[in-house]
Design brief:
WYL domain-containing protein, alpha+beta, 2 helices, 22% helix, single chain, SH3 type barrels, 78 residues
């Protein structure tokens, strides 16, 4: 997860996250990572059209948004 967040913050390419809210509900979102630290990730949420601060411990999954993740992107990551 850490490496994807780092690369997403550097490239500003959207990623897909599965997130568990305080009340236990799950959501799948497309976000653009602005910055992150040990506990939080500051993102632009494309679903809410707003800046959000996500608790890292509540992020269950991260991955490249399919249309942005292609062989060229993969080659840049290696």
């Amino acid at each position: 997860m850490e490496s994807i967040l780092k690369r997403a913050a550097e490239t500003k390419e959207p990623i897909q996250v599965i997130y568990e809210a305080k009340d236990g509900t799950l959501s799948q979102r497309i976000v653009t990572v602005y910055q992150f630290n040990e506990k939080h990730v500051l993102v632009w949420c494309h679903y809410r059209n707003a800046v959000r601060s996500l608790k890292k411990s509540n992020i269950l999954s991260v991955g490249w948004k399919q249309e942005y993740y292609n062989e060229e992107t993969r080659a840049r990551m290696i």
